Amino acid sequence: MSNGSRHSESFDTPPTASVTRSGAASAAPASDAGTTHAGIVLASPPPAAELSDSAVLAPLTAAASTSHPAPPLRWHELLDGTEDALSDQRLLALLLQVFLPPGGASALTGRLLDRFGSLAGVIAAEPCQLRDFPAVPEAAIGFLKAMRAVAVRMARAEVVERRVLDNWDRVIAYLRTTMAHRRVEQLRVLFLDRANAMIADEVLHEGTIDHTPVYPREIVKRALTLDASALIMVHNHPSNQYRPSPSDVAMTETVRQALELVGIVLHDHLIIARRGHSSFRRLGLL
């Protein structure tokens, strides 16, 4: 799904990672190569298997045993108020000062927010980006990544095994949490059963900053394997432009026609960006 104009070429695709109703990660079999749209894309390695809940929580609990136990943590500012009681800068300082010498968090949080734009941007930043700040220790980077994993799982819990079309706002919240801050385009498919409940949530491909490959045959094959009756395609635009490009529209129609031949409905195609999202269905493109 590229906004550029390049010659097309196809490559074999790697296995994909998925989250099924059980919440466990599984591997989908590799499929035959398909047609890329508007670009040459080398197949990326498969995502790592998803960590268990206990593994995600380990960095959070380990924070209590850090070498910088700061007495003036002021947790009461959060405990005695609401989730919005603290500014992004104050909340980030509250989280990071556990890992830093006294007084080290205040200046650092301002620089992090300037670089990444918001608290969500800091938590979604890649470890290599956070390492550009020497004052941020590895333990703090692991802590922030664990925070992100927890946020994604909380959002996912609101949509798994529920009727997706009846919980649309929660679906959008989950997809924005998962995809809006990614640095490269990612193609995700939500596979639905006959009651429109989500039976699998799979990342089929990751691409570049302005393109990800789409293989209609692979999407159809996976939907049949899962006995899905319908699906929702999702991809993100790191450029923050969430309106569909002409290649997005053409590719979506190709997938819709392929699914229709086997009796599977394409409910929607969503584009996710930090500034918002767009729906092909609501735009009249499906």
Can you put this structure into words, describing what you see?
A seven-stranded mixed beta sheet has the order 2-1-4-3-5-6-7, sandwiched between helices. It is built from ten helices and seven strands. It is an alpha+beta fold and 286 residues long. Helix 1 crosses helix 7. It folds into two domains: 16-49 and 159-279, 3-Layer(aba) Sandwich (Cytidine Deaminase, domain 2); 53-155. It has helices at 53-62, 76-79, 88-96, 104-116, 119-124, 127-130, 138-157, 168-179, 216-225, 246-260, and strands at 16-20, 25-28, 186-192, 198-206, 230-236, 265-273, 276-279. 36% of the residues lie in helices and 16% in strands.
**What's the N-to-C terminus distance?**
17 Å
Mean pLDDT score: 75
Q: Look at the structure and name the CATH superfamily of the largest domain.
A: Cytidine Deaminase, domain 2
The number of helical elements comes to 10
Brief descriptors of the model:
single chain; 286 residues; alpha+beta; Cytidine Deaminase, domain 2; 2 domains; 7-stranded mixed beta sheet; 10 helices; elongated; disordered N terminus
